[in-house]
Amino acid sequence: xxxxxxxxxxxxxxxxxxxxMPGESISSLVDRQALLWGINRSQLIRExxxxxxxxxxxxxxxxxxxxxxxxxxxxxxxxxxxxxxxxCGDRRxxxxxxxxxxxxxxxxxxxxxxxxxxxYFRLDWARIFLTxxxxxQCPLFKWSHVLPDGTRKLPHEWLMGEGIKISAVAxxxxxxxxxxxxxYDVRPKRPISREAWACVKYFESSLFNAGVGAAKYNAMNWRxxxxxxxxxxxxxxxxxxxxxxxxxxxxxxDAITFEDQRVMSFTFKKGPVRPARPTWFSLTGKVRSIACxxxxxxxxxxxxxxxxxxxxxxxxxxxx
Length: 320
Ligand SMILES: [Zn+2]
Known about the structure:
TniQ family protein; 320 residues; TniQ
């Protein structure tokens, strides 16, 4: 085991062992453990490693491979440092801002709970360019029980592994119903919405397969970077027209009436102003709601620029 830079006489409490689930993010594991103690994420970090709370405040739990938190956390949880690193991203810029990582798949949550696991957040759900669940082919939704420090709260019954109690979270029941309708392909119903939904999924899976917007450097090659650069530039240009209430302002000719406003929503825009130097930050800073982010993905999927064909070719998925 690596040596920890810790005072030798200090007695560190151990945490109740938790299994790191497939694809789970580190922040999800930390949240689950904190909630079991009835505290939030930042309190748990302060309890186990008071010396690094400042680092954590400045850092990002999901992109923390190189710093001391993982050493301490491995020691506390009994999970190996190597296993923790596998669940960490190393491209902070490609993920949503820590406090905005609230996207979740209701069907994944349902299946976690019914297999006696605590529902958990996947690292992929934090990717900027991914708004649907690749397992269930349904939209991701916003988990609305998020504390100011980013802790995603879960009902007590779920933490205790007592199965899913849908009524425990009123919004969860609605999300699950809508997600299933998409997963079973009974929604959206209207042709224009169906087409838009198919475009979004196809475009996002193409980007995903081409390694664009990946959480880890090792999932990318030079082509991923060049496509990502082109997509990000256009995304930033479009994102400047995101509204605070979660809609994307577009020209009237580019707008569609999507039948589920919670899934995708547009509004008409005024005059555009292109930012001088597009950055990931100007993208994540503007697009806060998942319905707006999905609308942005739809607009990107419709753009008639060269990289669009290139992305599809790279992803080996054939044509739309
Ligand atoms: Zn799912």
